[in-house]
Amino acid sequence: MKAIFRSFLTILGIISLSTHAGIRPSFGLEECAWSATDIVVATKGDEIDGVVKVLEVWKGALHVGDMISVPDLASFKNKDARLIHDPPFLEKKPNAPAQYVTCTRMILFLKKKANAANAAKGADQPHDSWEGASFWKQISVSVVWVEGKQTYTFQQLINPGPSELVAHGDDEKAIKDSVLKLKKVQDELAKASAIIDKSKRAELLRPLTQSEIYMVKQAAFAELKNCGEEAMPTLRKMLADPKLLSLHEDVIDVLQEVGGVKVGGELSAILQGELKFWRATGPKLKTGWWNESTDVDPLRSRYGKALHSLYALKKIRFAGCKSVVTEFRDFWRSLPQLEDKSGLNQMSEECDNVLQSLP
Asked: Is the peptide bond before 359 cis (omega within 30 degrees of 0)?
């Protein structure tokens, strides 16, 4: 639920902006594969100077045999920068020799580096210049080093603690399979987004909103929003499907964006339905139900659906919702297991916010 729990990537982005945070850069396969315009397997030349030769192309317009410049890779010329670390708490073998990655085989997740300043001066560019595609904008977490059957990436395994080069969980084949799977879905998203008929586009986007890949799901919902009112029939189908309950709060967000005050009656009806559900379910719950380990996800989804209905009603300031919002608030506050001061009382507080926003 977005209201109380943020996605890992969102938390990562917010925390990384804090000067007091302990979060350090870590490689993320899905994030890098999504952001990269080009993904290649490459090898260094006679020395590690940032110029590499492309051995395989997994994504993008580069070709096998191309020589490309990735200037930041030159930072690994120093052998100490390529030291492989043991995982924390692993008992180390006495007198075990230090191990290093060689850069003879690397999977690179790249974006074209801007050379506008050099181009303006007429500077000669012997190679295309590239940089890491990671969210962190660092090459160290945009590379998978391959040494035989083992792969290595930079990870922060302990927080607070450094980002270190450690063994990665997947071998090269598994990483390639994951990259190609995501690329296929990304291509499907691009194909759907190019459909001129917005109603048809929305229908093609519907299955993509159910992707297990966070970036695909969020991009599909963003594109649904771009379909405008033509997306409303698709959104209504999704709200009518109980199997998509975990997506309903996202659907409601988009419905409000594209429908505005026109969907005020629908949103009020949704909240009325949620009131009926909680009237039947709430009295059976115990205080602290939110953190129980069994069968709590559907309840969290219902909570999110009701809460996002309130968010939407507040944004459009739909006067016709006053009665149901008041009824929902009063019922919620009547049960201590719902009006839990540890955070669930956010629901009744949002009811107050909606009522205060009404004209």
From this structure: no
